[in-house]
Amino acid sequence: VQLVESGGGLAQPGGSLRLSCAASGFTFSSYAMTWYRQGPGKERELVAIISSTGGATHYADSVKGRFTISRDNAENTVYLQMNSLKPEDTAVYYCHGLGEINHYWGQGTQVTVSS
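User: That's the sequence. What structure does it adopt?
Assistant: Structure tokens below.
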């Protein structure tokens, strides 16, 4: 099983980044997918979740209206489009697959928002 995040990096306040998470080794289309983040000195927090079919999504209040989670079950990939980035969005972002029995984590990708 692998979840490989990409797309992190340095962005200016007000800028955008798009994170991707490529999944393999499990039935991706049967798993809800989430993005979590952990900022410096902070606990890991849920950012967004998308249902297995993509028909339902939920966001943390801190990112609502700025971030969009989506998925492509044909490509076994989940995305996080991040707009209007703020310095407080600086964190390591983790992809997480949530099944009925198992769950899997990616290794994380660093997002830094700074001028």
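The mean pLDDT is 97.
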